[in-house]
Amino acid sequence: MDTSTDDPWAWLEDVQGDRALDWVRDRNALTRATLEAEPGFAGTRDALRAILDSRERIPDVRRRGDFLYNLWKDADHPRGLWRRTTLEQYRRPQPDWDLLLDLDALAAAEGENWVWAGARLQGPQYRRALLSLSRGGADATVVREFDLVERRFVDGGFSLPEAKTDVCWDGPDAIWVGTDTGAGSLTDSGYPRQLRRWARGTPLADAPVVFEGAAQDVSASVAVDDTPGFERTTFWRSLDFWRHRVWLRQADGSPLLLPLPEDATPAFWGRWLLLSLRSDWCAPGAPDATPPWPGGSLLVAEADAVLAAARAGRAADAVHWQALFTPQPGLSLAGWSTTREVLLLECLVHVSGQLRAVHHDGTAWQTRTIDAPGPGTLSAQPLHDPWVADDALAEHYLLHYTDFLTPDSLLLAHTGNDAHQPLKQRPRFFDPATVRAEQCFARSADGTQVPYYVLRPDTAVDGAVNAGAEAEATIDGPRPTLLYAYGGFEVSLQPWYAAGWGAAWLARGGVAVVANLRGGGEYGPAWHQAAILAGKHRSHEDLAAVAEDLIARGITTPAQLGIQGGSNGGLLVGAVMLQRPELLGAVVCQVPLLDMRRYHRLLAGASWMAEYGDPDQDAHWDWLRRYSPYHNVPAAPGLAAPPAEDPQGARLADVPSPHRALRLPPVLLTTSTRDDRVHPGHARKQAARLLAQGHRVLYWENIEGGHGGAADNGQKADVMALEFSFLWRALDPRAAATPWP
């Protein structure tokens, strides 16, 4: 049921409409005037910008052939430089970089606000690339073929207009394309439904549709494995966010459905097929005494055996599967990658990284734990390129490490031993001796132990970042505290280097907290599945439990506690703000979805129904309506009788007040006009409804930025400074009691 005609602020869903943008500009002006006036705003913004633009940060690279490729942004190049260098050069403190494309110069020449969205290089020569460029940071991109030798776009080369496009190479003169080609080419979620093989020199309209999904799918996509001797192309139908069916394209072009669970994710690796499980599974035909492998396991089988079973029309009953990883209490698999011979497992032990190496010795699979830095966040990035014959880097990988107090480090490692050669180290932006980091656990409403990290000042600070800040000498007594959480889509919040918090929050005496709620992936698929659909309330209860624990420990007070979250995290903090306002002193709600009656009808919202539910089903709406932030806004105490209409013409008498009068904490809502994933109408309408009900609301909408909220480092530093100014205004007991606008 579409209820938009009953919504007094439905007009704010008109993203580029004059009336809606006038409202946005008015709210932006009020918010900027209010928060820029806070002491230290300019200093905080400059400090954050310096961190983001630091020339000493680690250049993120991807190997292709003889080169390591990087997209670099700094103060002089806010849109970025696409460049490359060799590993020999990369080892040096100041490598020589070969410039391929200056995005700032391109944007100026073409009059476009280009934002880099990635490149697909065509091997093994790596002379041509498909570049994806976004206008203002949107998910939709323009795709253009680029010549890396001549440093220019190819005349008459492959080119696609702005759309949510999926492309990859199929040899030097053809590409696979999923894009908007007119009626029927996209799913209800706005992603590609059809896949075409487009030959060079022919019109896209003449490219045959080789594979397609259904309109109600999330998307159809293609993956090409170019490993010599094991070349494979697979087609994927994403049935929803968590289930998919996968077909192998056979030599005659026909698709072969792989006989695998729909919620498991397969990946070919040479002669092997890896299978990541999201739910318990026992392969059909396995002996009765064989227990099912638990969700979160990683299995392996001979790829040819799986394909033979598929061609025989059987399930995987003829296949011998083995488990390379099974979860244990407190232990989960966060990710994995492969060199030529070794599988690298990124494990989590109570949200702390552990790295394992798995290889087949010709007889059996062997596993060992790699001696690596910790406790913190570890990730492995293999350097192997299957196109390179006798690849000297086939068993080398880049090892990334960081934690809340340790700047990111990059080491060169080899699968055959535990030796790590330092390559790069991010500079320190605060003294780790001045901050204490610890992990705590809170007990949620149903008794579940929920982990969270606390960062708090440990010695005197001078408050240099924020003008007028007073020195703090001890950690005794409650402090202004920022609690950040996400709690959705199996995303794990692992430790990261807290440079921004160090400069803008910890240096002034604040406490920062990261909560690992159910709905995330910190303890594997079961941790996520406990807080989806009808169980989504558990992530809200987990956040409230962490807030209560912080207060009980004396770390903070309700008046000094702020919560922050973006996207699904914006929904999280929006719901908890309404359910437990007595625990909170401020809320920062970023690029959120909040209208749970209409979310599935706005942009990519239909793709998330496996996470939240279908509002058009009465049973689903029954649980959604209980926490939908847009539908649960109470009137503020003492709210005078509202006028018949607000200045924009909404009939306030039609706005429901579902609860008794409640005093909500001040809230800052942020979004982006160019966010084509989560519709900016969510944040706009929530702000309008909160204002109409008499609450303290500030609103900021960046005209660029996409779902990330900012298109470049300058915009990112600016919006972060606005958020920190809001939090200090709301939570610092030393702040003047300035009335909220």
TrEMBL record:
Occurrences of domain Peptidase S9A N-terminal (ranges): 4-226
Organism listed in the record: Pseudaquabacterium rugosum
Lineage top rank: taxon: Bacteria
Keyword Lyase in annotation: no
InterPro entries according to UniProt: AB_hydrolase_fold, Pept_S9A_N, Peptidase_S9_cat, Peptidase_S9A, Prolyl_oligopep/macrocyclase
Alphabetized UniProt keyword annotations: Hydrolase, Protease, Serine protease
Pfam hit, one: Peptidase_S9_N
The protein's name in its UniProt record: Prolyl oligopeptidase family serine peptidase
Domain Peptidase S9 prolyl oligopeptidase catalytic, residue spans: 501-732
